[in-house]
Amino acid sequence: GTVVQPLVITIKGTNAAPQATPIYQGKNKGAAAATVGALSKATDPDFGETATLTVDPASITYAVTTTSSNGSAQAASATVPRGVTFDTTTGQIRIDPSDPIFSTIAAGENETIVATYKVKDVNGAWTTTTATLVVNGAGTNAVIASDDTALATEAGGTANGQGGATLGVNPSAN
Hints:
Layout: E1 19-20, E2 23-28, E3 34-37, E4 42-43, E5 54-66, E6 74-77, E7 84-87, E8 92-95, E9 110-120, E10 126-136
Parallel strand pairs: 2-10
Antiparallel strand pairs: 1-4, 3-8, 5-6, 5-9, 7-8, 9-10
């Protein structure tokens, strides 16, 4: 004979860690503030869980490097650099290039802020990623309001019978 017995198959899933691609935001000093989503390039391979990703506030560190002689470098720490805010509730990172801290960055120089943080899923799995914020120095071009013209007479010229003239042109007066 044949014996019929129930067959029980148990499938046990595992929680996969989120995946995150680093974020980059570059602005010139003096520009309007910019906001980027810390989770904008993060996904969760577990079905339906991407919407539940969060930033772990305790994991955030900031490192600042600078090519500016007047810059303010900072080794990695939890201290939020001036000109930057990180709202972990909304996951928004804001950089304000018009903050006076960036005013001394000259043309060709920059200040780079790297925020390193953990992206966590609803089940506690996590991955580490970064947001790189760069403020570039921007040169100030001279503004010329109008053209200046003047006539000059050669001093001591034998052909013109006149003495020299002093030019009264002041390009800075425009």
